[in-house]
């Protein structure tokens, strides 16, 4: 029998924490959109985007294998986690060197100075350390500690940003500085916690490094594809429409992000629960898991519909007058977030099949197609083309991942539950 009460307890805690984390920046939008101009928001968008891009490459998706290997009794997990942190440091060093020698091109693409791009890379390393701390709390089923850390980090981030933007009048650099100071501070706290709890040991183990790289390197195409899907449109918008339009688009994404964070809150409890159930699940239990997944699909689509309705009608109260023009595009963004959330619910089976190359092939293909479609649609239709391309890509990616996961990991998807 599936222990749904255990899942419900954990998911409720993660969900509440994620809702709080989403609510704080959401309720700050009325303030920040009245203080920052659209072009300043565009620079904030560029900075957040470059952090996401650099984190994806320096992190190599290793938080996933740290979570999975926690349940492998043959692994000395503290040593394994320590070697993953060593890999983070190595990849970040390589990225810093790359940024130094490619600064002219990167500055042209991102509209950010070399100094800010280098700072973003260091912030990424700190964020990855925090991510390992969070993943281990998640694996150990410690949702309260996970939530406290996450909520404190968000609160400090946004409090600092408000002080720097409003009282010190630092503009977009105040928001960026708030992000950097918070990431580095909490990265240091996370490292101290990991060492003190003896959850990491820094003894180089080449066999563990090989295991981590075998997991992470095949996922690089998946990472690139994901970046093209989620972030590629931002660079295209900046290229064709400028940082003002990018600022509008980024604000719309932040509104839609509330749904993504809510789904992620449930996933934080769902993935470890499912990882523990799948290896020994009977056919009847697999049917129950499939039945639950269908209910989650319906719940996500219903939530997206309700949220879109309320956001559309409350938009003038949420944002400053300079940003209201993005309102017609936000429902497209919300449903795009919904389908990306549904994709994560079926993508986990590909991880458990250990055929991550399939996931990489789908996402790199979807990402490349998205970049091409978005390029021409933005050129022709502006921001409307960008949001329509994103929704089309999200639906296509979800269906493709679902079909492949059904082939590589046997689940009774199309049998009566």
Tags for this model:
single chain; 417 residues; mainly alpha; 0% strand
Provide an overview of this structure.
The protein is mainly alpha-helical. Helices cover 84% and strands 0% of the residues. It is built from 16 helices and no strands. The relative contact order is 0.13. The mean pLDDT is 88.
Proportion of residues in β-strands: under 5%
How many strand segments?
Answer: 0
Q: Which overall shape is indicated by the principal axes computed on the Cα atoms?
A: globular
Order of helices and strands: HHHHHHHHHHHHHHHH
Major β-sheet, in short?
none
Question: What can be said about this structure in brief?
Answer:
The chain is an all-alpha fold.
Show the helix and strand layout.
Blueprint: H1 4-35, H2 38-59, H3 62-69, H4 77-101, H5 103-110, H6 114-139, H7 143-167, H8 172-196, H9 206-216, H10 220-230, H11 232-241, H12 243-277, H13 283-318, H14 330-353, H15 356-381, H16 383-408
Helix pairs in contact: 1-7, 1-12, 2-4, 2-6, 2-8, 2-10, 2-12, 3-4, 3-6, 4-6, 6-7, 6-8, 7-8, 10-15, 11-12, 11-15, 12-13, 12-14, 13-14, 14-16, 15-16
